[in-house]
Amino acid sequence: MAFRDGALLVVLGLCLLYVKSSEANADVEHNNRHDLIVKLMEVHNKLVIPRTPVQLSFGLVMRAIEDVDEKANILRISVFSDMAWSDHRFQWDPANYSGIYSVSLPLNSVWRPDLVPSYAKIEEEHVTVAAFVDGTVRSYVPQRLSIPCSFDFNDYPYDVHTCDLKFQSWTHSGNRINLTIIDETAASLTYHRDNSQWEILSFKATRTATTYPCCPNEEYIDVSYRIQFKRTVGEYQVRVVTPSIITSLLILVCFLIPPLSGGRMVLCSVVILGLLLQLAILNLTVPIRGPNAPFMADFLCFSVFLAFFAAIESVVSMNLSSWGSLSGSGNNNGDASKDGEELVAQPKPNLFLMQLARIIDLVCFVVFTVVFAIGGAIILNPKTE
Ligand SMILES: *[C@@H]1O[C@H](CO)[C@@H](O)[C@H](O)[C@H]1NC(C)=O
Ligand SMILES: *[C@@H]1O[C@H](CO)[C@@H](O)[C@H](O)[C@H]1NC(C)=O
Fold first, then answer.
1. The whole model's pTM is what?
2. In this predicted structure, what is the pLDDT of residue 33?
3. Best mutation site among 31, 36, 39, 96 for ligand 1, i.e. most ligand atoms within 8 A of its Cβ?
4. Neurotransmitter-gated ion-channel ligand-binding domain spans which residues (predicted)?
5. Which in 1, 174, 341, 352 has the greatest CB count within 10 A?
């Protein structure tokens, strides 16, 4: 019994010792880390650029298209800005600091390259950077970019857009900050979150070094990104294209309804209203005026005019038919009319006028079909011209 108790005590004691020693190790590491950071930050001044040339590699990782503001011509994306640069002040011997090979520091407490995008507006999170034992500093900052783009909606809703984005150091030439792309797949789509309305077609980076005549020894380096994206068509097909075409086709049906039927004018009016409604809906999403306006808008305006002429033709043909059906046979030859007889004479329909109305309808149907087909083809397929 005593022996077992003793063994238990020894085991417990060993465990306690182990816990104590690992606690002690953790304390040592903690103290070392503290000393290291204090020592590093003692000499670090974030206003002073490290030993030049600073080797800076830069990459953007696409997270998502957040918003495409079609009216304001702004593309909003969220990205990770991935930067690694050399700063000789972050160097230490890990053997002196319990093997610590990296420390995390707040982004705004260390020097960072003054890389800015031209034109685009930038919002970023305040995160930490990692400084490594060899003097490399790596930052991976979530950013939100608002990029002004000129969108071309001509092919709406099959439109493809391209936006450009350029990063360069605000004040330093290539001799002081050597900007390079982090690797060939720098414009990465790996972490890209899908957007239900937009699909990214490509995201490419290029590095350009420019020398100006004033200073032949100095290179100015920039990294440009080109984003190409398109609308995912499915929903627009249902919401915009099909209703517009169906409404426009109803114009032709107008001519097939008998002229004396009241439904004809009703249909014409409904078609005009429907087309105007489609235009208004289109105007909610994209600008429908200007050189970049969708051809879809031209098509709808053109259809409104056709429907307007169809309404006028309906009035003409309705009047012809009703004259035809009301005018008596007596009107045809003057001498046949006698006193008294005209009152009792049953008015015989004037077949000629009624047939004329039908013929005008048919001719209009054919002409409108041809105009509609040609006009629609030209407006919606301008590239074939
Ligand atoms: C770091 O350790 C080396 C030997 O490993 C020693 O020569 C040096 O003085 C130490 N530096 C500091 C700052 O303690
Ligand atoms: C800049 O970086 C590139 C690629 O790493 C290298 O070839 C070039 O020599 C560097 N230029 C300077 C001035 O350090």
1. 0.77
2. 93
3. 96
4. 35-232
5. 174
